[in-house]
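[AMINO ACID CHAIN]
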Amino acid sequence: MVLIEYTEYVFDEMVKRGVCLDGTNYKLMIIAYCWTDHVLQAGNWLATMIEKDLVDNATCSLIIRAFSGKGLVHLVVWYSEKMVQMGLNPNVIIFTCLINGICQKGNIIHAIEGWRMPPSMNMVLEFGRLLF
């Protein structure tokens, strides 16, 4: 059995046995999927965390960085905007990923302007408009 499959098995067994899961359990699954380069599956785990209101800034940063590394700019923007809606403050990793996405779309001028601005939550929404 591959380690990630075994990890899922253990997670499912914990659920079946009534273990009260917290954000750390889900975060570890996300880390495992990011390390094994399965970022879309990691995104599914993050979606579950969001549903259960267990998400934190560090987990969002991790998954957004993974999406950015794969060139999945639309997911970077979607999760960044979702963070803002949930009241989480985007950090330098989030803004770097958004700027990287703007560069990947070929809009270097806006990326440079974004890099010069002080980070704010409104910037996430503005970057999303620039990308799409």
